[in-house]
Amino acid sequence: MIEIILFLVFMSCGFIFGQLAEKRHFKSIVEREQQLNSLPVVASRYPPEDTAYHQQLVSGSVVVASDYFKSFTAGLINIFGGVVTPFESLLDRGRREAILRMKAEAGKLNAELVFNVKLETTRIATGRAGAIEVLAYGTAMLPVDAGRANAINSSSANDLSAIDSAPVASGSVPRR
Amino acid sequence: MRYENRQAPEGINVTKVNPLVQFLKFFIASIIVVVLIVVILQVAGGAIAKRIPFKYELQLMDTVDPQLGTTGASREMIAYLNDLAFRVGRELPVDEGISVKVHYSTEEVFNAFATIGGNLLFYRGLLNEMPHENALAMVMAHEIAHVNHRDPVASLGGGVASLIAMSMFTGMSGLAGDFFNKTYSFTGMQFTRRMEETADEAALGAVNALYGHVNGAGVLFEVMGEIKGDSEAIPDWLERFAVTHPLSNDRVSAVRILAAKNGWSSEGETTPLPADFLLWLNRD
User: Fold this and answer.
1) What is the DSSP secondary-structure string of chain B?
2) Which of A30, A129, A155, B34 is most buried, by CB atoms within 10 Å?
3) B27 vs A113: CB contact, 8 Å cut-off?
4) In angstroms, what separates the C-alpha of A158 from chain B's closest C-alpha?
5) ipTM > 0.90?
6) Do A88 and B174 touch (CB under 8 A)?
């Protein structure tokens, strides 16, 4: 009896709080996406060749946990197969949040673009708890003037960041 | 060159479903699947296991040689219990080749059970609560009936088959695995409960044949109800579903109904336990 009650409590809490958290998160994501929309994020490996840029690695990562209801329902779907819809929204939130964090970092550096953006997803939770980490990283393209100013401010602050000393100019971009 | 990110339409990466409807659909479907698996494997596994000749059970127990009962426990008690088993067994339609051996454990556990190879184990905790031989004979007959119905081997066969299937099933269902294990246990309990009811009926007939009445036979279940206590916090319908044995109250009623149905007398003098019974009981 106590197990049935606990199960119902966990499922209800997972459903109610999970849905609330998700709605709130999506609302925040949409707002910030609009705010940061002026900073393009491009998957291409080839940056524009008509302007001189400094380049800097920018990244954003997020860890999002599943809730009891989602994990339970996903477990049921695993038996029969099909689209694991409870995790679709979880991954969508993770990807968008990671890109937003990366964009926020690039925005602080006054980057004009972020190039060669990649996403990595990892399941990090142990046991049966479900949580994912999504990492977005790319090359922020900083106009030469902005890059010089940021080099002084941020190269010592962020170990992951590395600014090329030579600006990338037209015709000097290595192609593979 | 100009780059821009257009806002993608909201929700294109998430399938639109009602999570509650989706959950209910899969929940009900998986319960049906689990119940079907367990029922099929319990029935099939049990039926196949029952076809294994009893002599193999004996051979298995000889090979495994498990320690049943307490070493050095009262010999008189063991002899008395085996004598009672012999007397009760004569009144039961025991199949040819089936034999029972009674073991005695001095642990204070209110229980007795039948296992593979016709081995019965009686605990001091149960014997201590027996008011007269009629009640003890009912327990004895009940356990012998289990052996005769090949319930221990059927439980083992059906249980192992469904356990293997369930471990595969739950292994891929993550958090829902625990729930499936519960569903499996509850479904399995329906089988053991049926075995218990059938054994009760056979045992009551044996007690009636042995003593000429069934007075005192139901005492066992009354004592059981007092000691184990059918939970008052749980509704009866739920408890009936979630326990391996029928509820004590239900068994007391069943004794009355069976006696009336078969014309067995519910009145008669009970047979006392041997005079030294308590002495044997308290000897380690």
Assistant:
1) -----PPPPTTTTS----HHHHHHHHHHHHHHHHHHHHHHHHHHHHHHHHTS-HHHHHHHHHHH----S-TT--HHHHHHHHHHHHHHHHTS-PPTT---EEEEE-S--S-EEEEGGGEEEEEHHHHTT--SHHHHHHHHHHHHHHHHTTHHHHHHHHHHHHHHHHHHHHHTSTTHHHHHHHHHHHHHHHHHHHHHHHHHHHHHHHHHHHHSS-TTTTHHHHHHHHHH---SSS-HHHHHHS-SS--HHHHHHHHHHHHHHHT--S--PPPPPPTTHHHHHT--
2) B34
3) no
4) 27
5) no
6) no
One-letter amino acid of A66: S
* Distance from C-alpha of B150 to C-alpha of B155, rounded to nearest angstrom: 9
Task: Give the mean pLDDT of chain B.
Answer: 83
* Residue of A33, A92, A113 with shortest CB distance to B3: A113
Residue given tokens 């009926």 in the structure block: B201
pLDDT band (50, 70, 90) for residue B4: confident
User: Are the beta carbons of A128 and B23 separated by less than 8 Å?
Assistant: no
Burial of B130: CB neighbours in 10 Å, binned 0-12, 13-18, 19+? buried
Closest-approach residue (CA) in chain A for B175: A72
> Which residue ranges form the domains of chain A, and what is each CATH number?
2-154 (3.30.110.70)
Using the beta-carbon criterion (under 8 Å), do B26 and A1 form an inter-chain contact?
Answer: no
**What does the alpha-carbon distance between residue B136 and residue B114 come to, in Å, rounded to a whole number?**
15
Q: Which of A28-42, A143-157, B1-15 has the highest mean pLDDT?
A: A28-42
* pTM exceeds cut of 0.80: no
Interface test with B, best of A6, A35, A42, A79 (most B CBs within 10 A): A79
